[in-house]
Amino acid sequence: MTTAALSPAEVRALPAAVTAPQAFAAFNLGTTLGYQLLADGEFPVPGMKVGRTWRFRRADVLDFLGLEESAPCADSDGAPEVQSGAPSKQSAPTSASK
Predict the structure, then answer these.
(1) Alpha-helical runs (H) found in 1-98
(2) Which of 7, 60, 66, 78 has most Cβ atoms within 10 angstroms of its Cβ?
């Protein structure tokens, strides 16, 4: 079975613990080849067996693919963003002196 390859944005959106099928899709590998590489100890990133399933760290997948954790926005000027609902520090209005 062949899985559809993931875009860089889809890879970045993966959960912290990536499943084998998700990792295979990130590397554009079919299921059979992916499990064969795991069995041979030749999978591109280290994995951990959890019960009968494999898990991989998203950070390892991103690192192998040369992707950053989050891509910078095209309209970003590098300034930190303000979160909606976040308290802002403003001085209290003063009364005019007479």
Answers:
(1) 8-12, 20-26, 31-39, 58-65
(2) 60
